[in-house]
Structures are given as structure tokens and as C-alpha cells.
Amino acid sequence: TPDTAVVHSAAAFDKPVVALYPRIHANYLKFRPLSSCAVSVLPPEGYEEVRHIEVARVAEAIRFLTGRTRS
Questions:
Q1: Most exposed of 17, 35, 40, 61 (fewest Cβ within 10 Å)?
Q2: Burial class (CB within 10 angstroms; exposed 0-12, middle 13-18, buried 19+) of 4
Q3: Which among 13, 12, 30 is positioned nearest to 21, based on CA atoms?
Q4: 42 burial class (0-12, 13-18, 19+ CB within 10 angstroms)?
Q5: Can you name the residues that pair with 18 across neighbouring β-strands?
């Protein structure tokens, strides 16, 4: 879905967020969250659709963010 309101709301308040994006470079550069608490996950090279993102990559992004946000 192209609805990124939740992603950008979280980024605006520096809340941890994992965002999944299709591999469309121009759109990604234009719409990615710019927060230091955001991790974007794209499909592997050669694939464009979000459905090609492996669960392990999303889990890795979540572990990375939870490790950074613990105090």
C-alpha cells in the first residue's frame, strides 16, 4: 500500500519504525522516513515488490531497533 502516514508519524516523533518499501529507487528516495529511529527494508536486488522481502530481514531490522532503543 502506498499509505505511509503511520511511518511518517512515527518518524516525526522519533519512534522506532520498520518500513517496507518496493525497490523503486525514485519513490524510495522521495518517501523514505528520515528519522534516525527508522529502518527501511527493501526487496533483494532483482526484485521490485514488497512480497519478496524475507521475514528474516524484517526481524533483523526489529532486533536492530529494539537494541538501539533500550536504555
A1: 40
A2: middle
A3: 30
A4: buried
A5: 39
CB contact at 8 A, 41 and 54: no
Whether pTM exceeds 0.85: no
Say which residue the cell 533483494 belongs to. 44
Q: What gap in Å lies between CA 20 and CA 40, rounded to an integer?
A: 6
**Angle of CA points 57, 25, 10, to nearest 5°:** 60
Write the pLDDT tens digit of every residue in 4-43: 788 889 989 999 999 999 999 888 898 888 888 899 999 9
C-alpha cell at 22: 518496493
Strand partners, 41: 20
